[in-house]
Fold:
Amino acid sequence: MDAELTALVTAGATTLVQQMATDAWARTRDRVAAFLARRSSADPDAVAAELDAARAELATARQDGDEQTAADVQGAWRLRMRRALQDDPEAAAELRTLLDELAPQEPAWHIGTVNNSVTGGSSHVVIQAGTIGKQSIGRQD
Structure:
């Protein structure tokens, strides 16, 4: 397998393992299960069940601080993806598209609520603003 496909498979397994810890897991699981099932004549539900079992194993490993098991989970799926690409070289384009769809989106600015109150009978000027000069109030996730 050439370096480009090896990098693609590694990115695929890394993305899969990262997605196991997100709210987008169900969508990721279903997409990856369908991708792998098409290449192995496996039942997509069976592959999804294997992915769920891997997710549970990964969660336990991370909770226990067992980095070796976490790496093994990723390695197992990297091997599975590599076999899928070896069996069907045309699958690389589909895997690239899938990874693009699963990639985290750019961080979005969240606009929050700021509540200010002034008490104590001050006779000074009070300025309330979201931006003053180059200072900005807000959080980027």
Summary: The two ends are 38 Å apart (CA to CA). The chain has five helices and four strands. Residues 37 and 44 are 5 Å apart (CA to CA). The chain has a mean pLDDT of 83.
